[in-house]
């Protein structure tokens, strides 16, 4: 760093390689005093040997400062890294950033700037740094990045090329070039010393981001009717891709079925080659991929449109769910077929051997064994499926088999609750003993939601007591610690830290590896606990948890994302997705909080998430996305309308030529999930609510 600025009472002059100008509609003296309560020093790099022009503006309310850093380049400058570092004047004990940077080599690349912010706080004050997205939107030079170093007490913004190292963390890369002209980087420093607001460290950042960029993006977003996307979903699944998607078969004398877990582009009727199935053919009832959830959406749509054929498919899936065998109340999470490696004309293809070779299993996304046949029972998946059964029974059909199946599971569940209130994550399928890994995790929150729903229907106090004991345990041991660890955090595609980080913070960031799913389950459980008891603390902790979740929602349309992205969600602080399918789960919960708290921002965020749930669909209604699909898969045509990847930019890289577009559709974690969310929200609030808010 060649420029160093000590923010103090009398520094208003040109310092080594840095020109500082304070601007304010109050007296400069007061502005500087206010900043000096939070920021000890600012260190600014030169660029190509040139000094920076730094402008600091503090408005009359003194709640934030706007900083712009300018260079005027006459000849192209090659400089691998440029940065500005801020050092708080206090020693924070709370740190938050949207992505992990476990070493000084790592950065928070602009690829994950969905709602970018860095936060440091103690019990009496808080500093938040937010990149100026208006400046970034017009930036022509190297990519921006951020970095939070809790050990050195530094907040950094910079410019550099980046590369993906782990899945998915980012590191700096050599070769950044600055063309002649104006180079500008801008950011805001949010200042907060109101003790009443420090309980929720994200609310100030969320409001600022929404008021500066999110609300305008919402007003400019497409609010057209979503029902054509839903129609395309079901036409794709049960008509044009009927040879690949719906699975109908006999199980112990009963006809059952559901859409298959996953299909890829080789199964398109327009694909010029032979089918090569991506994964084992299966149907899941899991917290992630849930055929029973998707079937509820199909049921609602078929009922509304009086479509007997689609209603028949929904009923087949309900019957399949009720056919999953229970072992002392616990039950499996998937049914699958055997697979074979088949040779055709010298090439090998992955194919199913048919439903006559079925077996029961559980999710292979677990820490015990990556084989669905041998995988352990997952409490989260069972609680989620049993909760869906209760919702079907309560809202769709008075089928008491659903209630009895769920109650049978509930009796087993409450008997394995530990003394602190937690439910374990995984059980051995042999002796039903719990595994130690994640034995006290926020996955417990899903069981809270299930037990509260069962209490609502059954009025058995045991279910309420077990639920509230578990809820209190999550509040005490998870929420305030930010320990959002669940099955996806370590045992899906982002495996960083699975061997040495579970239950531990990344020291340099003072943060856990965190996943948004467990935030969602917990925010939902807390709102349900509040509704069951009227205790406002549950609602308070629920809003705090929801706000942490909302920091993963895109509040703008970046120029480096080549599909519409506003309103969509990311996954975790060590992965790179935009528009991930989880937004279809989150949408109604965000709306519910908005209605409960009387905050229109939440209602609009929830509706933005609902609309974003369809943004990855290959459809004539999604012009930008359709173009990207056809660049990646030129054989796509009208028969493929409705095909939808679960997310965008998963690998941490995008371009305008289709990079970032995937190759598969998971019906239950994509188009079917989006359609279910829409149909559920229409039934709960009406089409007018969606269109007019």
Structural class based on helices, strands and sheet pairing: alpha+beta
Distance between the termini: 49 Å
Mean pLDDT figure: 94
**How many DSSP E strands?**
31
Q: Which bin fits the share of residues in helices?
A: 25-40%
Rg to the nearest angstrom?
26 Å
Tell me, what's the shape?
globular
List the topology elements.
Layout: E1 3-6, E2 14-15, E3 18-24, H1 28-36, E4 39-44, E5 52-58, E6 64-73, E7 77-78, E8 82-88, E9 94-96, E10 106-109, E11 118-121, E12 126-131, H2 133-137, E13 144-149, E14 154-159, E15 161-164, E16 170-173, E17 177-178, E18 181-192, H3 203-220, H4 227-240, E19 246-251, E20 254-259, E21 263-264, E22 282-284, H5 291-305, H6 308-323, E23 326-327, E24 330-331, E25 334-337, E26 339-344, E27 347-352, E28 358-361, E29 377-378, H7 379-396, H8 400-414, E30 426-427, H9 444-458, H10 461-477, H11 487-491, H12 516-533, H13 536-550, H14 583-597, H15 600-612, H16 623-632, E31 664-665, H17 671-685, H18 687-692
Parallel strand pairs: 3-5
Antiparallel strand pairs: 1-4, 2-3, 4-8, 5-6, 6-18, 7-17, 8-14, 9-11, 10-13, 10-16, 11-12, 12-18, 13-14, 15-16, 19-20, 21-31, 22-25, 23-24, 25-28, 26-27, 29-30
Helix pairs in contact: 4-17, 5-6, 5-7, 5-17, 7-8, 7-9, 9-10, 9-12, 10-12, 12-13, 12-14, 14-15, 14-17
